[in-house]
Design brief:
The protein contains one helix and twelve strands; from the N terminus they run ββββββββββαββ. It is mainly beta. Strand 4 and strand 5 form a beta hairpin.
Amino acid sequence: EVQLVESGGGSVQAGGSLRLSCTASGFSFDELAFDGLTVGWYRQAPGNECELVSKISSDGSTDYGDSAKGRFTISRDNAKNTVYLQMNSLKAEDTAVYYCAADGSWARHGRCLSLQIMNFNYWGQGTQVTVSS
């Protein structure tokens, strides 16, 4: 069973940086390998739907939500089955639970539970990012 495990969340002051990691494990021989997957990040701020933060395709092409452009950078290390999200110049409005997702249909936003169940084969447990102003 494939699992996505996020790490790297925490509390930081506005203007600071964090790097999130999403590591995948449990691929069987008949499943698409990690390096063939598009992997990305959604986030859910309190009271809001999930919004797409960023994703990276198997060929390394990237896509960012408007809130992440110019501040966040997504990258991947296929040898480690890991995708990273480097977040710089953090703002209070970046406070959210950040979820890693893979192998699915990438909506710009939506209800998190619906995305998890209907859109993606793999979804992480989330990591909290808190930015204080």
